[in-house]
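By way of example, what follows is a protein record of this kind.
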Amino acid sequence: MKKKKVFVFFPDGVGLRNFAFTNFKDIGEQMGFDIHYWNNTVFSLKDNLGFNEVKIEDHTAHKLLPIYSRARKRAELNVSRDKFNDKVYPTYKFPFNYKNLKNTFKSLYTKTLIGLHSSEKGIVRLRNKINELERSTSKYKYCKQQLQDHKPDLVFCTTQRSTQSISALLAAKDLGIPTVAFVYSWDNVPKAMQVVETDYYFVWSDLMKQQVLQYYPFVKKEQVFVTGTPQFEPHYDTSLLQTKEVFFKENNLDINKKYICYSGDDETTSPLDQYYLEDLANAVRSLNNKGESLGIIYRKCPVDFTDRYNAVIEANKDIIKVIDPIWKQVGDQWNQVLPAKEDFKMLYNVCKHSEFVTNVCSSTVFDFVAHNKPCIYYNYEQPQLKKGIRDIGQNYEYVHFRSMPSQEAAIFCTNKNDLETLVEAILKGKTSNVSEGLKWFEIVAGKTPQKASENIWGIINDLIN
């Protein structure tokens, strides 16, 4: 019997971590699939990993696509604001650019489109126009020819949010090839980040399925399948575990210290993030002066290229040890910073050998609760906050944080003066969010986070057959 051919489509690099560096491909091949990676990224899967690869060399998008895509997103956010009577949706918008004549024209044109299309029917018109524009490109014709040459039985798109995927998926649909989009991140659906329209959608959880149906009335419930995400599967792979002695030696850590992980954020989410690291360092120094033996592992956000932490790290180099994520920059865009497979092992052991994690509103809360480790979320203003700098407090107002089963699903530090007490309470076992955090993890990532790849291939098998 001939194997069913599946194109695993990477419109950009964000899906590589989930679908190239986990056991996703191995599981699919064990289930009898002929897997080819349809690759729109600069990362060569053939050269680096030895995978079957069909490389997309034409990256042409219609020149009006950025304008129409932005208008579509803002129109959807306006509809959500009015439909749900909720002021959170405008906070997802980025400001318009009026810096020169060209940008001013683009912004005014976009605002005109938004004004004409901020209704559910208007959004459909915008989506149809985007499809019309992308069908006219050379990339559409190029991808259509690749599909005709290779004849896949299904195209599985690894993220729903990349405009680079639109023309390729339209080509597949126009040829009658079933298409699936994986909803990439836990916060994407309410933020109007569903760029593509496919035959089916794979989501992390029942919560995410309910959101897709809530925000996109053109999607029917029989099109949406709950699979989980491969993102968390490595945390259940005990072969990645290093002993404390080996991990500490490899990373120049002091075996006599207990370490707290500070997980850095990108500059958009947390523009004053370095000062929260400084606050943690001050709390640790104070506790060490009282007899504790503590250190900090600083793991930066992989797409943060700033030097904003340097002064804090240098001033506290006796306390802070930098263990960078193992990612590689292969381009100048944020989505061209790609993870190395070795980072799974690094993150696993950072979680395992840290006492807990602290950060601003990151999904690393789930990485750590998977290892039964607590998480502190910072939620207080820094004195450096001034007009034009984004307050981190608005992050916790976002829709995806409403999925928390209770406020105890994370340990919120709402006052800088409380940080030392919270750190001490966690270390002594008096405070923890693990129990409620695991409930939150299940709400967000589904009941079987360790079986997401298996679930995805099982449903692909059903769809093809």
